[in-house]
Each structure stands twice: as C-alpha cells, then as structure tokens.
Amino acid sequence: MTLPESVEHSEPVKARTPDPHDFLALDDELDATERAMRDTVRAYATTELLPHVADWYERAELPRSIAKELGALGLLGMQLDGYGCAGLSATAYGIACRELEAVDSGLRSFVSVQGCLAMCAIHRWGSAEQRQEWLPRMAAGEVLGCFGLTEPESGSDPGSMRTFARRDGGDWVLNGAKAWINNGALADVAVIWAHTEDGVRAFLVPTGTPGFAAQEITRKLALRASNTAGLTLDEVRVPASAALPGARGLKTALSCLNEARFGIIWGVVGAARTCYASALDYAVGREQFGRSLASFQLSQRKLADMVVDLTHAGMTALRLARLKEAGLLEPTQLSLGKLANVRAATEVARTARSILGANGITLDYPVMRHMSNLEAVLTVEGTEEVHTLSIGRAVTGVQAFR
C-alpha cells in the first residue's frame, strides 16, 4: 500500500508538555468566537469581580450594579436570538458560565437565572408583545427577572405546587408562595408558575404589583454572594396579557430548568479549576519538613486525582455542548452531566481544602467559599437523588420516583 505523498513527507507533530490547568488541551477544541468569549469573560471576572467577591460573600450581598456591566458584555440571555440578545452557541454560553463560576457560583447563578430562566421563559413561551416589552431591557441589565417555581412544600416535585391563579373578569388573580428564588429580592419582574383550572400556566408579575412581596433569605452558609428570596402572592391581580401564551403544562417550566442545568454543568468546571489551581500553587510554595508539600507522594496523589476529575468534567461539558448545538441533547444526558460534574467539583474542592490545611477555611483563599457553594449547587436545579433516578429510569426503563 502506498501512502499519499502528503502523508509520506509530513513533518512529525511535536508533543506539548501538558498544561497543568488544561491537561488534555480541551480549549483547543474551541472556535475563535468561543475563545474570544473565554478571554473576555475571564478578563472581566478577574479584574472587576474577583477583587470584591470575598467581601460580597462575607457581607452576603451581590450588587445590582453588575447587571448593566454583564449586559454590556452581552452575557444576559447570550444564548437567545434577537431582542438585543447575542445569539451565541451553547459552547460559548458554557464557557461564560465556567469563567464566571471560577470566581463564584453566585455570579453564574445571577446570569443563569436572568438568561436561562426568566428570559428564556419569555423568549420561548411569551407573545411577540411580551418579548419586545421585556427582553431588550433584560438583555441590557436594566430590568432583572426571577423564576418562581419552587415552593416551601414543593421542591423536587413541582407538580405539587399550591400557588393558584383564578380568572376574575378579564384579569388573573394569583395566590401562593415561592421559596429559594434566586434574584428574587432584586427582580423587577417575576415569572410565576401556578395551577389554573386549565393546568399549569406562567404569568409575568411586575414585582411592584400590590400583594406581591419578596423577603430575602438570610443566614445562608452557601451562595452568599447572591440574592435569594421567598415570594408571597396575596390576591395579586394581573391582566390577561400577563399570561405567557405558550407556557402550558409543567413541561414548559422544566424546559427552562434544563437550560439552567446546562450552565451549571459548565460553571462547576470553573469552580473546580479555581480550587485545584489554588491547591497547586499552595503545594508548590508551602514548605513542611524542609521541602515543599508538592514533593510528597500523598500531595501528588491528591493533585493527580483533582486533575483527573477536572479533566473529566471539562470533557463532559464540552460533549454535552456539542450535542446541544446539534439538536441531539436529551434531558437525561443533562442529568448525567449535572450529577457527575457537581460531584466531581465538590470532591476537588474538598481535596483542595485538605492541601491548604487551616488556611483553606479562610476567605483569604477561594477554596472553602467554593466548597460551600458547591454543596448548595448539588441541590440547585435538581437534587443528586432526582438526577440519579432520572438516569436510572433512562437505562432501565423503570420509573422509581413513585
């Protein structure tokens, strides 16, 4: 067999020394637009957010002012088309989530709630008039939204929600309560899901509407650099035009949650990367028994395990992004990604904390902050148990939820 001339005389490709922070060079798979997104968000997050995030975390606050900065960068609703949205690829969106969560999970959550929950619901299920009224201002960060699905007695089983909307003449009147609503006390408009006589519907409720109240949840030990609230609706009256015409049935709400889960799958890779990088730097620079921590076999074992977990999580995120772009991504595949990547990131954070020793529990280092956040992210957008059972149902064909 004769090889083609181009093959016979090709120059051998020189191997590269693996980058400790991207061991399999996964970012080589990104196109020019995706790399530009990476560089832009990383630069902004590193210079404008990272210097302040430990203080925000300690004070349990997230300044609303960052919304317009994020909007100016095109990060709010970036995966949506039209209405001032950037219309970027799933991978570009994932990269942005990764770089934001490398600073803090609360920042990724802020963008995710705005773009993948509130804006996505309006974009996907709203009327042309609703889209035009809300989306351009939300994309610019001038108007903030939240997504009211979870309730005090209805978490993993959203179908058991008690919030109800009844017709009264030409209006809808809503009564009920929502819990653990990110951006809830910052929002200008809430997408509220409620039972009606015709099934589950969604309504756009301006937060200044009489009877609507948001109470910020305090004393949190995770996701402190974020806003979380409980919402109450007491005879909240909205016009018929407030109903999202396409939002009929619980599946429409869950479709928005799938968008947010995708962002988490990418985001936790950033959190894990930061924890690993912090541990690596510390191990190299810290001396014990007359030598660096990095020179001990047990330390190297920990660092190697972290590299493996971080690399696997990055590969999973990239594969799911490519499936999503091809229109082939299934919800159960998102369950696998969310379960695997958050689990891996949590283990990386815990291992990194052990390398830093007592220093690992202070806000002078990012590890414990990420570790606490990831414990919450394990529950957000579907608990570990729910995603486990979703995967189990997919591979066995047997329903184990009920």
UniProtKB/TrEMBL annotation:
Pathway: Amino-acid metabolism; lysine degradation; Amino-acid metabolism; tryptophan metabolism. Belongs to the acyl-CoA dehydrogenase family. Residues 146-236 form the Acyl-CoA oxidase/dehydrogenase middle domain. Keywords: FAD, Flavoprotein, Oxidoreductase, Transit peptide. The gene is gcdH. Residues 33-142 form the Acyl-CoA dehydrogenase/oxidase N-terminal domain. Residues 248-395 form the Acyl-CoA dehydrogenase/oxidase C-terminal domain. Its cofactor is FAD. Residues 1-20 are annotated as: Disordered. Gene3D superfamilies: Acyl-CoA dehydrogenase/oxidase, N-terminal domain, Butyryl-CoA Dehydrogenase, subunit A, domain 2, Butyryl-CoA Dehydrogenase, subunit A, domain 3. It catalyses: glutaryl-CoA + oxidized [electron-transfer flavoprotein] + 2 H(+) = (2E)-butenoyl-CoA + reduced [electron-transfer flavoprotein] + CO2. This is glutaryl-CoA dehydrogenase (ETF). It comes from the Bacteria. The keyword Protein transport does not apply. InterPro entries: Acyl-CoA_DH_CS (IPR006089), Acyl-CoA_Oxase/DH_mid-dom (IPR006091), Acyl-CoA_Oxase/DH_mid-dom_sf (IPR046373), AcylCo_DH-like_C (IPR036250), AcylCo_DH/oxidase_C (IPR009075), AcylCoA_DH/ox_N (IPR013786), AcylCoA_DH/ox_N_sf (IPR037069), AcylCoA_DH/oxidase_NM_dom_sf (IPR009100). The keyword Oxidoreductase applies. Pfam families: Acyl-CoA_dh_1 (PF00441), Acyl-CoA_dh_M (PF02770), Acyl-CoA_dh_N (PF02771).
